[in-house]
Task: structure prediction
Amino acid sequence: MSNAYHRLGLLAVLFLFSSVSNAITLTWVGCGITKKAFMQELVVAYKKSTGIEILLEGGGATKGIKSATEHTADMGGSCRYRIKGEAPDSMITFNPVAWDALVVIVNKDNPIESISMEQLRSLYRGEINNWQQLNEQDRSLALAVRNGKISGVGLTIRQLVFNDPDMDFPQNNVYKSSGPLEEAVENNLNAIGMTGISSARKRNVKILKLDNKEPSFDNIKSGNYLLYRPLYLVIDKQSENVKELEKFLGFAHSKAGRDIIRKNGVVPYLEALALSIKQQSQWKKARNQAN
Result:
């Protein structure tokens, strides 16, 4: 009897070892905002539930899309939509998972509390270079901007604020990604910039009201805070792990996944589907006001 139990125990160990050794490891490359908004917590919960590990690498939305397109990563994270000609439709899919918001950030010790949309436009046109123009102290102002025009934050500002994807911003303080930009604002009393709220909340910065509206969870969900945008999981449909990727996407949309997203102060996409309709009027308003 003892030999039989011994054999059963050995088989159980071998089965467990085989299961562990055959576990799939997925790869994700994308923007830091999407990473902080939900990916870091989702992958931990998913591994706990399934044993599947997902390796995360930053680098920006464009890098994430490119990595998925070129099959060097199973999926990407993007805080911007597909740009025609930038990513072949037949190879990848953009799957909205959450609603984020663009926010204006300043140093914690900056006395300013709110900025208007018109002031924001003047700022990015290069018409404001002193804090006194924003009814604050007479001191120089340093606008921090993202490098390039198709970064997640850079493109969204151009689309939602100016309705002009080719808009040129002042190039005095340019940063390659949102992380360095946020750090610059943290460390410079005169700096101001824009980033995603998912990332800004985890920094030692002040988040300004826009037109006297806070980028709160409820204001983003309702569309009362104007500058909202989707965050995407970009999936490589040619990946040999596509079935597991679809399972992970399903987990992100599940109650457990939505709870994780909501806990981070980000709105689950399925809980605010009406925003996709309101966004069309948002773009129309941007067109009218920018002209």
Summary: Residues 82 and 147 are 18 Å apart (CA to CA).
